[in-house]
Amino acid sequence: MPTPTDAAGSEPGAAASSAPTPVIEFVDVEKSFGNNVVLKDLNFQVARGERVTLIGPSGSGKTTILRLVMTLEELTGGYIYIDGQPLTHHKRDGKRVPVSKKEQKRLRTRIGMVFQQFNLFPNMTVLENIIEAPIHVLGRSKKDAIAKAHSLLEQVGLPEKADSHPSSLSGGQQQRVAIARALAMDPEILLLDEVTSALDPEVVDDVLNILREVADTTNVTMLIVTHEMGFARDVSHKVMMFDGGHVVEEGPPDKIFTNPEQERTRKFLSAVLGH
Amino acid sequence: MEFFEDWPQYFEVVINWSDRLMAGLWTTIQLTLFGGLLAFVVAVTLGLLAGSPHRWMRIPARILIEFFRGISLVVLLFWLMFVLPQIWMRNPDLPFRDLVYNTFLLGVIALGVNYGAYGAEAVRASLTTVPSGQWEATTALSMSWPHKMRRIIFPQAWALMLPSLANLWVHLLKGSAIAYIMPFVSDFTAELNQLRRPTDIWFSHAFIGLIVYFLLALILTIFMQALEARAKHKLGRGPSLKEILSPAPKAVVPEGSGVKIADSEQEAAGAGSAPAKPEGGVR
Amino acid sequence: MILNLTQAAEIDDPSMVDEEEVRRSPFWDWDFAFDAFPDIFMAFLEVTLLVTVIGSLLAAVLGLVIAILIMVLPKPLAWLVRWVANFIRMTPIVVQLIFVFWAFVWMDALTIGIIVFGVHYATYMSEVYRAGIESVPRGQWEATTALSMSAGRTWRKVVIPQALRSTVPSLGNYAISMFKDTPFLLVIGVAEMVTVAGERGAPVFRTTEVYTIAGLLFLAASYPTAVLINRLEKRLAYAH
Ligand SMILES: Nc1ncnc2c1ncn2[C@@H]1O[C@H](COP(=O)(O)OP(=O)(O)OP(=O)(O)O)[C@@H](O)[C@H]1O
Ligand SMILES: [Mg+2]
């Protein structure tokens, strides 16, 4: 099992205390849907280049955390900082003040996300899916965008599918295109929400291997939600166990998976690992 | 029967009047085309506004939609024809004076605004039917609102809204017949009505009218179905137009005559019968 | 310049209006509005609502008959019924009114109006019923076969009750649609609301009040009904 290469030069899990600004920081985050408080007083940090896996029972709020970072959900309390800059609100005179839409958009271009259901655009070919945002959002030249798209398609093993329509691809192939589409934006932060849950078991490894390679060859910060514990163990520097909107326990994967401190974590792991 | 005895005479009259009938037909076609064009612009504008997350855009759009749908086409027409010009009569210096007296233009506006308001509901509903995952993906790629609308959301909603818009267009064609009561608008129905004078043959002039309107509606429907097939094909669902039209034995021809006129549109029929199942997460 | 069928269809040329007269009179005259309202409202109750209610009932029944005929008749006949229905659906009510008016000259115009509206909208409603009938699961038909139920009993006791429930909102929406189409009746001289409004306004060159009142009455009646139907539709959707 390859040990994760630590791109940030800091020990996994040591981000909280190290001097450089964390690339993601949650401060007293609270998220509720109506009366249902899903996250409360949530504090954690992710260092640049760190790969963090969130585990926990269903409904514990893992997806919600990723969606908050992607600004797909509205933050109802607290603050999220991306590279030290407030993502949705900042604190001024003790009050929460929303940041400008422009500022939010600027930060958002540094974040990419891969969805459980792929969400490729059905009205575009594979290539068009990949180059659309780099050209029209980042302002890259069409030529550069296409060249990059082809090299990414190469990387995800689908060089011949550039002109296909998403509907003609299998689930595994669609997810690989979705990964290429997210990477084409050169994100500093990549959010992966159960990216293999909608796939047939035999193609899961194809997708995971591509993500392993991305992890090995780049220093993109990753926030991962997955039920594939082997994958989590391979790629992450840190595992955080959630329950009831709190971090129950966090630590390096080897420790969490083999020797968790909390009873709650042990129970959860034995349930998902089936022993 | 009288009708069959008089048939030769009747035929002659139609021939004699064919020039005027053709002119009337041309007016009806123009009313349908220009009215349809205006209705489309109104539908897309109000539909996008009504689907906006901002109250200050949504609420005025809703009011306009409900107003122009709720008020009857005929009332709208009379209002434009009799009440609107009074503003110009009171203020003779206002510009565009000629336009207010142009009854053809007023007819186009009444048709466009009335059916456009129905169409707005179809546009709004079809936007909410685009899966929330598509909206989320555009956010994850930091696309601006105009960009995602133009390139991602609208093209997908397009295929969904086309059947409703097609039905509305046929409704508009049928509604345009009322324009014959307007002075100076000699559309097909008006010219037919003129025919009654020399013929004196009961109901046959109207029967001709029914057939011509039916043919027009049929042409509209087929055209819109071709558009819909093309839109679906672009989303990777269904065969391309070429495949449909090719005479190959495997061609996918809808059952029966090849034309589906099943008018299962409900959204044309009143407020809020949106076909959509809203999926939330829309921004 | 137009040959009018009746007095009612006579539309004044707006440019013939005496502009001086208009300029001297107020844009809106409350006294006249209150004066004209009762007549317009009576026409609304006596003609517009009457045609809508009876026409909708007729359409609801006839629509079901058409839908069932198309399903049970042998192929060529069903095909014929379907295309006659398509024909009626795809042609203007205005022309249909004129056609029937001259085909059945002895008939009273109001009756003709109700029949034409009823038949025209029946062709729409038959589509709604068809969709409703098609949404009855296959298993239900198979169950009636397994129970050796007669065809008539199957339709009456199993299919129609299930098909009808989901069709109620659509039928309501078509009723609203018909309501807003009733002014078309002016082409055959029925004194419906808009005609009466015009008759009240024309002699005194006052059109603002009467047509505004007519429009507001349409809004006031159709919008709340539409909202109610929308609620009903949502409730039915949840019930499934
Ligand atoms: N849009 C929403 N509206 C209301 N409640 C929501 C919404 N999204 C999530 N929730 C609630 O928030 C809680 C956390 O949901 P979330 O999807 O984040 O859980 P999760 O940890 O990702 O679970 P899973 O492992 O099943 O994906 C759940 O109780 C869920 O019901
Ligand atoms: Mg989840």
Can you give keywords for this protein?
heterotrimer; A: 275 residues; alpha/beta; six-stranded mixed beta sheet; globular; disordered N terminus; C: 240 residues; mainly alpha; MetI-like fold; 0% strand; elongated; binds magnesium ion; membrane (chain B); transmembrane (chain B); cell membrane (chain B); transmembrane transporter activity (chain B)
CATH architectural name of chain C: Orthogonal Bundle
Q: Sketch the major β-sheet of chain C.
A: none
Q: In CATH, what is the class of chain C?
A: Mainly Alpha
Which shape of chain B, going by the Cα principal axes? flat
CATH H level, superfamily name of chain C: MetI-like
Distance between the termini of chain B: 65 Å
Task: Predict the CATH topology of one domain in chain B.
Answer: MetI-like fold
What is the helical fraction of chain B, as a range of percent?
over 70%
| Oligomeric state of the chains in view | heterotrimer
- Using only C-alpha atoms, the radius of gyration of chain C works out to 22 Å
Q: Which percent range describes the beta-strand content of chain C?
A: under 5%
Structural class of the secondary structure composition of chain B?
Answer: mainly alpha
Contiguous low-pLDDT stretches of chain C (5 residues minimum) are: 1-10
Report on the biggest sheet of chain B: none
Family (chain B): Belongs to the binding-protein-dependent transport system permease family.
InterPro entries (chain B): AA_ABC_transptr_permease_3TM, ArtM/GltK/GlnP/TcyL/YhdX-like, MetI-like, MetI-like_sf
GO molecular function (chain B): transmembrane transporter activity
Protein name (chain B): Amino acid ABC transporter permease
